[in-house]
Each structure stands twice: as C-alpha cells, then as structure tokens.
Amino acid sequence: MGPVCSKCVRLTQFLPLFLALWALPTRAQTSPLNVEKVVILSNDVNGNGLPDPGDGLRWAIRAQNTSAAAVTGVTLADSPATIPPGLSSSWFSVVPGSVTTTRGTILRGNEPPVTPPYNEEVQVDIGTISAGGEVVVRFDSVVLPNLTGRICNQALLTYTGGSTVSNDPDNADPLDPTCLGPIGGGNFVVATLRDSLAQDVDGDGQADPGDRLL
C-alpha cells in the first residue's frame, strides 16, 4: 500500500458538501431564504491592503426568511476548502473559538483544530427561522501560506424541502460566491482605504450584510 495523501483525505470529508453545491439549480433557484455573505480584511499584518498569508479575515453570513411561513430544519455548512462550481478557491483557516451565531447551536469550528493550526469547516444547526426573521453567523479566519489567486467561498444552507447558497451582495449576479484578493502584492497597485460604519442596521458595531460603510 502506498503513502496516504493527507490533503486528499481531508478533501474526501467535504465530498457531500461539494456534491450538494454542484446539485443546486444555477441562477433561477427560488428559496424562502435570502443568504448574503461578506468578508473584510480584519488584520492586515504588513499593511498593504491585500490579503496575504497570515492575515486575518472576518466573514459574516446573514440568512433572512423572506417568506410568510417559518422555515424549519435550517443548517449551515461553510468550509474553507469549498470550491464553488467553475471557480478556483484558496484555502483559509477558521480561528478556533471565533464562530458565533445569533440563533441555534454551533456544531463545528470552535473545537481545537485536529491538524494545527487550522479548522476546516463551520457547521451551525440553526433550527427554525420564523417568517421575516433572520440569523447572522460570523467567524474569523487566517490566510494559509503558499497561496496565490483569490479567496472565493460560499456557505451552503439546507432546510426542510430545499437548499441554497450564499450570495455576495456587492455583485449583481445572484448566488455568486464571496471573493477577496488577489493574495499578495505582486504587480498590483496598492491603495490605502479607510472606512467607517455609517449605518449599523442591527446596532452590533460590526460590518454585516446590509450595513453601509463610508
């Protein structure tokens, strides 16, 4: 028997999630849940304004029930290894203990990492979202070394009777992944951007989907 590929073993753990993403309808999907995902560069170690290995990223996912009835059996799965169909994806690590949710139970992401220094999946058992209600899940991550390209990622939400993926609210294309990058400086123009939270919809002092930045 030949040597075991450790990365291949890790990838097989997410096969059900990959298959669920591939099985989703393309752009015409109708879902009672409107799911938006945003990311910010929360810790820019070298101050170049770009995500580099070792920099910190903060992700926020807001799921809103836009229907007139409660949505039951809601679960969220978000893996740094998830590669949206048709796109390449770079890996980041979930910071243990950083996962929070406004509703439900955190199943994965806050435990000590099995393979230091990173966790590979966030799972939340949200349960029921009432008509017009919403839930916000947040987590921090760190860009892993030896990576290039852009970080692109989507969260998968399943519920009784269906499933949907997160959308980047900054792009007009529906159900598109949330991306950040490119990783590293390379031959790119670097500008300094400073922002402030001009409208904090839920008053939590953090940048969330639907908030307005200056």
In short:
The protein is mainly beta and 214 residues long. The chain starts with 5 loop residues before the first helix and ends with a strand.
Structural overview:
This protein is mainly beta and 214 residues long. It has two helices and 14 strands, in the order ααββββββββββββββ. The protein has helices at residues 6-12, 15-23, and strands at residues 33-43, 56-65, 71-78, 92-94, 100-101, 105-108, 122-129, 134-143, 151-153, 156-159, 162-165, 178-180, 197-199, 212-213. Strands 1, 2, 4, 5 and 8 form a five-stranded antiparallel β-sheet that branches. Strand 10 (156-159) and strand 11 (162-165) form a beta hairpin. The longest helix is centred in the N-terminal third of the chain and has 9 residues, at 15-23. The protein is globular and about 50 Å long.
Key words describing this protein structure:
7% helix; 214 residues; 14 strands
